[in-house]
Amino acid sequence: MELDSTLSSVLIDRYSANAARVRELAAPLANAEFWRKPYPYGNSFGHLVLHLSGNLNYYIGAQIAKTGYDRDRPREFNDANPPSKEEALKRFDEAVTMVVATICAQSAEDWSCPYSAIGANAQIRLDMVLQCATHMQHHIGQMIYLVYELQRSHS
C-alpha cells in the first residue's frame, strides 16, 4: 500500500471513530440535556457539536473542498435558538462525511499544498486535517465530562 492511501485510510478511520464517539456520548442525552450547561462556565454538549461542525466545514470544507461555507463562529457557542439535538447531530454527520470525501479526493501531492485560513497556523493541507482531528479529540474529552456531570445530576 502506498503512503498516500495509507494516510487517507488512517485519517478516515480517525474521523469516523471520532464521529461515532460523539454519537455514542450524545445518545443518552435528551434534547434539553444536550443543550444544558452543567457548569457556570464552558459549553453545552450541543454547542460543542455545533462548534465541531463549524470547525470542519470552515477549515476543511471552505478552505480545501471549496464548499463556500461561511462560518459564524460566535453563534456556534451562543445560539439562543439552537437546532434540535437530532438536527445538530445530522449537521455534524454531514460535516464528517464531507471531510471523508475531501480526504479521499486528495492526491499524494495535494497533502503538501499550501494552506491558509483565518485562525489557522497550518502551512499545508495535511497539517490542517490533522489539527482538525486532534481538535475533535480535545472536545470529545470535554463531552465525556459533560455527559458524566449530566448523568450524575440525575442521581
Describe this structure in words.
It is built from 6 helices and no strands. With 155 residues, it is mainly α. The protein has one domain: Four Helix Bundle (Hemerythrin (Met), subunit A). The longest helix has 28 residues, at 125-152. The chain is elongated. The termini are far apart. The mean pLDDT is 95.
What is the CATH architecture term?
Answer: Up-down Bundle
Helix content range: 55-70%
Which spans of ≥5 residues are poorly predicted at pLDDT below 50?
Answer: none
Provide the residue-averaged pLDDT. Answer: 95
The ordered H/E elements are HHHHHH
Q: Major sheet: size, sense and barrel closure?
A: none
Q: What is the number of beta strands?
A: 0
Structural class label:
mainly alpha
The number of distinct helices, counting runs of at least 4 residues, comes to 6
Q: Measured on Cα atoms, how large is the radius of gyration?
A: 16 Å
Please describe the topology of this protein.
Elements lengths: L2 H24 L4 H5 L9 H21 L7 H6 L6 H21 L19 H28 L3
Helix pairs in contact: 1-5, 1-6, 3-5, 3-6
Short description:
With 155 residues, the protein is mainly alpha-helical.
Quickly list its features.
single chain, Four Helix Bundle (Hemerythrin (Met), subunit A), mainly alpha, 6 helices, elongated
